[in-house]
Amino acid sequence: MPDETTAEQTTITLTNASAGPLWLGAVGCGGLPDLDILDSDGQNHFFVFEPCSPAPCELLMAGECLLGCDDCVVPAGLRLDPGASFSLLWAGADVEFMEMTAECAPGPGCAGDCVATRERPAGTYEITVSAAQQCVGSCDCASPSPNGHCTVDGGIILSEELTVSVPLDFPATLEIEIPLGG
To answer: How many CB atoms lie within 10 A of CB 175?
Structure first.
């Protein structure tokens, strides 16, 4: 069974500090911005459950084994207008990829890959975000949020990439803003 975790979530706010719109790639069914949060060994600690990610080991141990893949359509990107911001929560724990063996599985269909929650080590992590300054295709949004961001669907081509990296002292810092461009 997973260890108990006590770490709080960290709020990461991406802000467009440039004079024009920026586009970020999206991941997961929720269309979260594509970013990396690397430890000193270069291991990425930003995990987004994808439609066919391994199930949480807790569910398999509880006998909830008939989990299928949701076929969601991930937005092509996220658009941030000048001055706009987008906030996301970085979970207070990491995931460990494991395998539920047939011997340990509580029933048929429970054996297979799963993820378990683990306490994230304290330390300095590097958040890296890439944004595009140019977009070709269906790059506009019908109705941006009050914060000036929106998801963009369809075939878009992004170019003129800029990359920003900032350090994060975890768990001391629970809120961080990352200015993009400017």
So the answer is: 10
